[in-house]
Amino acid sequence: MIRLIVNILILVILAIFISMNVQYTTSINIFGHKFTDISTIAVIIISLAAGVIYSFVYYFMSFLAKTRKNQLKSKDKKTKEKAKELKSKEKKLDKHIQEEVQKALPKEDEKTVSPEEVLKKEGSLLDSIKRKK
């Protein structure tokens, strides 16, 4: 309710200001073009409107820039999180591979057979088979 009363008072004061200054005229020069006998109130209103439009464009562009900057920060943060997650998965995979390799290797207490011994055994088996024939 108070806001409405304040707005009405401002509009009344503006209407009084305009009505008292309607008869005054001025000349203006816009980029080399000279205009004469233009109402002072018209110049004030046009200047106000141009300022409002300029401010709107300026703040809108600032808003877009901030939004874009926040999007880039968010994207960068997500990329860093994914990189961190990928590193942890790589570590888990490396650990798993090492465990599997350790399982596949013979244990120290088991007897290891050299390739030469295998060849000797196979050779002796082949000799015994040939003798039987």
Anisotropy-based shape: rod-shaped
**Topology, number of strands:** 2
Unreliable stretches (pLDDT < 50, length at least 5) are none
Distance between the termini: 119 Å
Structural class: mainly alpha
Total of DSSP H or I helical runs spanning 4+ residues: 3
For the largest beta sheet, what order do the strands appear in spatially?
1-2
**What's the alpha carbon Rg, rounded to whole Å?**
45 Å
Strand content: 5-15%
- SSE string, helix = H, strand = E? HEEHH
Q: How many domains would you count in the coordinates?
A: 1
Q: What's the pLDDT, averaged over the residues?
A: 85
**Percentage of helical residues?**
over 70%
Question: Can you summarize the main beta sheet?
Answer: 2 strands, antiparallel
List the helices and strands and how they pair.
Blueprint: H1 2-20, E1 25-30, E2 33-39, H2 40-104, H3 115-132
Antiparallel strand pairs: 1-2
Provide a descriptive summary of the structure in words.
This protein has 133 residues and is mainly alpha-helical. The chain has one domain. Helix content is 77%, strand content 10%. It has three helices and two strands, in the order H-E-E-H-H. The protein has helices at residues 2-20, 40-104, 115-132, and strands spanning 25-30, 33-39. It has a two-stranded antiparallel sheet. Strand 1 and strand 2 form a beta hairpin. It is rod-shaped and about 135 Å long. The termini are far apart. The relative contact order is 0.03. The mean pLDDT is 85.
